[in-house]
Specification:
The chain is α+β, with helices and mostly antiparallel strands. Helix content is 32%, strand content 24%.
Length: 192
């Protein structure tokens, strides 16, 4: 009887050890702050049809012709992309960066990134301006934020509306820095 009990205990111990080895090798409870290869691959392979330039073109065309902006038509929360379907940025968690499109009045809408990440504001401004056929001659002079080193502002005249691109430096709780952008399409002229 002792031999039988000893044999059972040894086989249970071996079984438990095997289970623990398999569980830990599969990453059972392992967590990392670093994005996994799978997560990075999904960002690289991500594709969406919500192009920021097309969204802005639709909004600015409505503003130019005096069509009231409707929240049902334009409000959106999700990933906005460049002309090739790639996310405009990757957030600090390693996922495609999210944006909010919000109609704030019948003549104004704002598009802003929600999270910090590797967003390149100059590249995005150039892409938007090029897509809307805007050049330096469309820039309206304004002194707003001239005394604020953490905020940059460019306002474009849309001939019937204005596009205000505001970029602020921000710091996440973990100390990482990044830009927060607000792109406002509006009928209202900017403050001088």
């Amino acid at each position: 009887m002792r031999n039988l009990i000893s044999l059972i205990l040894r086989s249970e111990t071996a079984g438990i050890i095997c289970f623990l080895l398999i569980f830990t090798s599969c990453g059972g409870s392992h967590k990392s702050d670093e994005p996994s290869d799978t997560m990075l691959k999904s960002v690289e392979d991500y594709h969406a049809d919500n192009d920021i330039a097309m969204t802005l073109r639709s909004i600015t065309d409505a503003i130019r012709v005096g069509e009231p902006l409707d929240t049902l038509d334009y409000n959106f929360e999700g990933v906005l992309t460049d002309g090739e379907g790639r996310p405009l940025y990757t957030d600090i968690q390693g996922t495609p960066g999210a944006w909010i499109v919000d109609v704030i009045s019948p003549t104004s809408a704002v598009i802003r990134n929600i999270y910090l990440g590797d967003l390149l504001p100059d590249y995005l401004e150039t892409y938007i301006a090029g897509s809307l056929n805007l050049s330096d001659t469309n820039i309206v002079e304004t002194t707003e934020f001239d005394d604020d080193d953490d905020t940059s502002l460019v306002v474009y005249d849309l001939d019937g509306g204005y596009l205000r691109i505001e970029t602020r430096s921000a710091v996440a709780a973990n100390g990482l820095e990044g830009p927060l952008m607000s792109i406002i399409a509006t009928k209202l002229p900017p403050d001088p």
